């Protein structure tokens, strides 16, 4: 896209008086940078993905409240992780992390394992053990 055609739509950044750095071509066809306040398709896609993440967090919260899954599942969603990312942070196989989603298995986890999860979620072991639904 040419530098003078960089979109300046109202986006997530325009409310904060910020601009995004994007690549464009100048009049000679060379790549250069330009500032953009937003681009409507990108804003829509970002809003949709944030909405989906919020829904997944709410579902995980309800499942913890109903004792269907452990708090590990909620914090994984809240921290925008998936099984692969979380398992790499805690240094365990994915099947083992999934197993820790079961409330009965979670209740028997040692503090050393819980510490790995707590560190990954940037919370304390007590916060992980005593999940509060605010």
Give the helix/strand layout.
Elements: E1 20-25, E2 31-36, H1 40-65, H2 71-78, H3 83-90, H4 94-99, H5 103-107, H6 111-121, H7 125-129
Helix pairs in contact: 1-2
Notes on the protein architecture:
- With 134 residues, this protein is mainly alpha-helical.
- The chain folds into two domains: 3-38, no CATH class; 42-129, 434 Repressor (Amino-terminal Domain).
- The protein is 51% helix and 9% strand.
- The protein has seven helices and two strands.
- The chain has helices at 40-65, 71-78, 83-90, 94-99, 103-107, 111-121, 125-129; strands at residues 20-25, 31-36.
- The protein has a two-stranded antiparallel ribbon.
- Helix 1 packs antiparallel against helix 2 (71-78).
- The longest helix is centred in the middle third of the chain and has 26 residues, at 40-65.
- The model has no long low-confidence stretch (mean pLDDT 89).
Radius of gyration: 21 Å
Uncertain segments of ≥5 residues (pLDDT<50)?
none
CATH architecture of the largest domain: Orthogonal Bundle
Question: What is the 3D shape?
Answer: elongated
Biggest sheet: strands side by side, in what order?
A: 1-2
Q: Mind summarizing the main beta sheet?
A: 2 strands, antiparallel
How is the CATH topology of the largest domain named?
434 Repressor (Amino-terminal Domain)
Distance between the termini: 47 Å
CATH top-level class of the largest domain: Mainly Alpha
Beta fraction: 5-15%
Q: What number is the mean pLDDT?
A: 89
Number of helices: 7
């Amino acid at each position: 896209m040419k530098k003078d055609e960089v979109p300046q739509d109202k986006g997530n950044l325009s409310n904060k008086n910020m601009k995004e750095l994007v690549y464009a071509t100048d009049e000679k066809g060379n790549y250069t940078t330009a500032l953009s306040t937003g681009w409507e398709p990108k804003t829509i896609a970002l809003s949709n993905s944030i909405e989906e993440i919020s829904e997944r967090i709410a579902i995980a919260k309800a499942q913890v409240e109903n004792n269907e899954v452990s708090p590990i599942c909620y914090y994984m969603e809240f921290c925008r992780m998936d099984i692969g990312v979380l398992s790499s942070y805690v240094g365990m196989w994915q099947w083992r992390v999934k197993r820790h989603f079961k409330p009965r298995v979670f209740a028997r986890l040692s503090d050393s394992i819980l510490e790995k999860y707590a560190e990954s979620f940037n919370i304390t072991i007590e916060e992980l053990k005593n999940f509060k639904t605010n």
